[in-house]
């Protein structure tokens, strides 16, 4: 333990101590005149009298009895205080006796007694700097960004992140050195592994039972390491002292730290009385929390300032996280970065209310939150404003509560609420200009709720509705607007209609004529707009025209009908909470603010000549910017949703979509309020990635919000339908499928008694209609279901689906089960999946082969010459011959003698066999010997042979086949055209309807080509911005240089002043040249990327033309054999299942599920679609899916595709599939 008397370095007067004689003969001050009085005799008298008492004090210090030592110090100076003289500073030994009282603090159990010791010394003037900066955190908000930190300290934020031994710093080098040394000793015949194992075992026992104290004790003897510990603990000590936190002790001995229960190798124990008092009251202020965190992270800051980076402090981080979790409600990782009491209340508002799954009254919660926020307005008004708006935008399911809170604040501070309205206006205008659909929708809902809370004038809200309505009507007007941008107009109408459930009743009550005018305008718009068909983006196939219901309404028409029904019922509904009604008597006293007019962005001009292509291009561009809202899949019968109104179902769906969107793992938070909290920046820990100002949100937050929506009815079935609608959303889901997989998994854990059964019912329902499911949706469902089962130990009642073995091999249900099992094997291993289907052992027939290789030279049988060549080639690889040497050997001994076919087979089989041990081995082989493969496969025909050989080698492992071909394409060993040629080879064409293997390889090839051009677009966009910046910097540097040349300075030459050249000219000239070089370099990079982009554009055009030609060639014959129409298995589009197949309650009661036998007919009749017809359906389905997925890259080349592929002699069904995928108007034919 370090004596706490070392704190004297904090006191500036301790730098010079006097000897004993100088103290007793020092002068003193009496009154104004300065008189020197000799007090030796008097001082000696005092010293003699106190000698025995000082002995008592020494004994108390020695025994670490703080109470007795402090009592002596408080009693002893009384005699001196009552005298009429004042001694000057005592001798060092005398003063150290007073300081020694701090050494007794370590054994003190009562921290208040420790605080009394510091207070006593401070009162006596011994600790003038103690608590000097206690109130520094009250100086207003701080904005600590990485840029500010770098400019103020010169340190990157990563330097403030504690390092973990073995993965950072020199520890990694030490580990490598250790392993290298052991290897050398083993090669020399010295086996130290038993000794090493014993040492590691002792270290493990030390870590488990002693917290690593023994190893830390040994490390502490290393001087540099010991000094770093001293610096770290000195940081805690210094900041605690300056912040006025009494320090109980500083422990530097790891063994002592362990005995005292301190985590880590050292520790500083301090105490904050205010924090303890607030915690005892069940609250914590931002000031106390800030002060605590500053002391906690001071050690890391001290290390970073002294050594340039911090290594210690991991336990400080853990302590901070544990403190955050103790708060009520506990702080999530998202909130720890800028959290104080008012933020916690605002963020968690309503979560304990009955409407949000709790049992508290939202009125009490709102009043508490309002009281806290009102008190903080004076000090943190700007922070509250921005945080409140951010919460309203990112937690839109709580908007009614935030609107009510703003209404209450409006009663106290109208100016503050006016700023909220103005900021909302600015944000909405920015969202309109940029086309941020989700932000527009949520901000309009927020404004509607503000109107309900008497914050916004109802007439202003009506003006906003009419502005959007006018823009929408103008857009669809064929004379004045651009009907191809109807997607934007429909979106504006959707925003207006979706706001009315939150404020329709108030608008009717306050401005009935104005809202009637809006409703009439909506009706007029609905009468002039074009109905949008959902067929192109429906999850169910519509190859046959007779399956399309041209009279079906689209989503906007449905929504308009629901709003009309709601209006006829007096705007009464249960799914929208209305907390403002409880405060309406108070809210009416507030001032309703005006909302300034907004302007909608102008849409592009219509094409000069309107054709199907020009109209389709602009329509596609509009739908990319304003995605069309599709109807949710109705997987379950209406009885499962308790006969809810359609508008209630819509509102619940809105809630769920909001939660899925805003809690998707990229939640943003404001900059940290804690001065030293930036150490968490750029630190990766388990599933969280810390980034300054943002962090990865916990998935549990999303699940918790989804199960706690403010509705009074059960909605598990709607929740499942909404999630599956998002998974199967076409053309692309908003997020990666893995996100929805994790959400479903967390919901199953959050609602274990209900949601797993609901998900099982949804899977069974979709399985019943799998034959009608779009091919892209079918693939997504396979990937999701296999991944979902892998998270639940692959448990599924497979006996329900065992009947698929009775179906033909091309039946979609049989193919679905087969593909799910194949994907499960990829996620686990073959024996595990075989064990999981023990309830239906016959399904083993559908399991893929065990993933063994098909190395043709492994057995003695076969061509011995080729086997010998393979052995020689393997030996060359083991000897690490270069690619050039290997190519020379192949040219001289193999290619010239045995021909190309044998050479290719030997080389590919041998190299793949060497790389078959793991994915890493495969990558290594391709990187090292890719030139060898490129030498023997220089053109497309040879590359097709190469792919065939790869497929043959991995014929028992579809995953490795796809990976190997994908990697070869990445290394440019094979082209995308070669892959397409191979996919459409006769062997693979026969598998189109019974296996996903060729389609997976085709999707990978097209996707890789698409990603190349997408990445180039991003790089070009970034480089264009860099060129602008570089040009401005070069121009500025040149201007500074030219300006300096016109200015001369005076210099002395032979003692005479003369005009001389500005000394800065040389530096400015070099700077101007450097900036110009940077500009030229950036422009050259841009030109290079643009050249690559042109090549990529030509490449993708060639790819799609070749792909569509291949489809035409393989479909021409089979489609001619049909009657021009294909009969799908289903007769209806509606996704409905029988009651007995989908009821979660019945599933729970019976303990088993009834079998589902919908295969386009009854099970006893088998599958009623022939093989050739099913082949056509599957292939056309993939045509539509690929066209839809890559429509953005197909539209720019559609004229050439029409001229070369979609000619008049193309079969109508093929043309229809392509047009449907592009959502292209069919008026061209």
UniProtKB/TrEMBL annotation:
SUPFAM superfamilies: ARM repeat (SSF48371), FtsH protease domain-like (SSF140990). It comes from the Eukaryota. Keywords: Membrane, mRNA processing, mRNA splicing, Nucleus, Transmembrane, Transmembrane helix. Pfam families: MIF4G (PF02854), MIF4G_like (PF09088), MIF4G_like_2 (PF09090). Residues 1156-1166 have a biased composition (Polar residues). Residues 1142-1166 are annotated as: Disordered. The chain crosses the membrane at residues 165-186, 198-222. It is found in: Nucleus. Gene3D superfamilies: 1.25.40.180, Peptidase M41 (1.20.58.760). Residues 343-567 form the MIF4G domain. Belongs to the NCBP1 family. This is MIF4G domain-containing protein. It comes from Penstemon davidsonii.
